[in-house]
Amino acid sequence: MALHIGTCGFSYRDWIGPFYPNGIKSLEMLPYYAERFSAVEINSTYYAIPAPKLFESMDKRTPQQFRFTVKAPGSITHVPAAETPAAAEAQAFRECLQPLIGSGKLAAVLAQFPNSFRPGDEAWERLGQLRSFWPDLPLIAEFRHRDWQADATLRGLRELGIGWCNVDEPRFRSLMRPGAEVTSDIGYIRFHGRNYDRWWKQQREAHERYDYAYPPQELTEWIPRIAEVSEQTKESFVFFNNHRNGKAAVNARQLSEMLDAGDADR
After folding, report:
1. Alpha helices in the chain (DSSP H)
2. CA 61 centroid distance within chain
């Protein structure tokens, strides 16, 4: 089994200082990052499907053992459940990933659904559509509403061959509670921060929800869950999405050090 810890995204100008050295160029960020973390989650694909040359460049700038997970486009995951996403969009996304598939660096595609996406026949049809769009890709589903957190969901995802994303976020009643669920041979955990005051901001201010630094005790809570997920999977990923001002990179390094220290004690 392999455990990778990293961040959701890497190309942030406000990380210069807290994580990247002053004067670093944009093309130098990924190699610098890859010297310190073994995986990254690419989120920019949620907003637009890039040309394959983007991932060709990322492949060349990272070591062979480096791993990428890539977020599915919002034009596919955030279409109302009663509608069918465009097959052409799904195919274009599949094609843009080919450089990472060819190099063996693509670990998974993350399909993150909105809070409005709730369990039901139409929602399950959407999940089936995604699997039919990308039958050969490792898929992970991240839900934002707690109604999905049920045994029936876990069984359904296993049948579709879709992995489960565990999350840490504010403990609002409608949001997902922390767990250590696994529905495929890939384990997945995302840390969004616990910014209660800013979580429900309007879209133009939504970036503020991720302005949060985890204290050590909140990271420690997750160590048994991470171990449980890792023990059930061939490969597991822990990504920090609290990206404002480099907090994700700082917390990812802290968690890595905690886990390394725990291994040394055993």
Report:
1. 26-34, 52-60, 74-77, 87-96, 98-103, 121-133, 151-160, 216-220, 223-231, 247-265
2. 21
pLDDT in tens, 204-260: 455 678 889 999 999 999 999 999 999 999 999 999 999 999 999 999 999 999 998
d(CA 3, CA 236): 5
Residue 253: closest CA among 83, 7, 84: 7
Asked whether the CA dihedral 117, 73, 47, 150 is positive or negative, the reply is positive
Cβ neighbors of 10 (< 8 A, separation 6 or more) are 29, 30, 33, 40
Q: Which residues, including other chains, have CB under 8 Å from residue 124's CB and lie 6 or more apart?
A: 156
Nearest to 30 by CA among 74, 73, 67, 71: 67
Give the global pTM. Answer: 0.94
CA distance 86 to 78: 12
- Of the candidates 234, 178, 206, the one whose C-alpha atom is nearest the C-alpha of residue 46 is 206
Q: What is the set of domains in the chain, with CATH numbers? A: 2-265 (3.20.20.410)
Written as six digits, the tokens of 27 are: 């093309």
**Which three-class secondary structure state does DSSP give residue 86?**
coil
- Residue given tokens 């049948």 in the structure block: 159
pLDDT in tens, 162-180: 999 999 999 898 899 999 9
- In order of 18, 47, 242, the CA distances from 42 in angstroms are 20, 11, 14
Contacts of 85 (CB under 8 A, 6+ apart): 75, 76, 77, 79, 126, 129, 133
Structure tokens at 211: 């302005």
Crossing angle of the two packed helices 223-231 and 247-265, in degrees rounded to 10 = 70
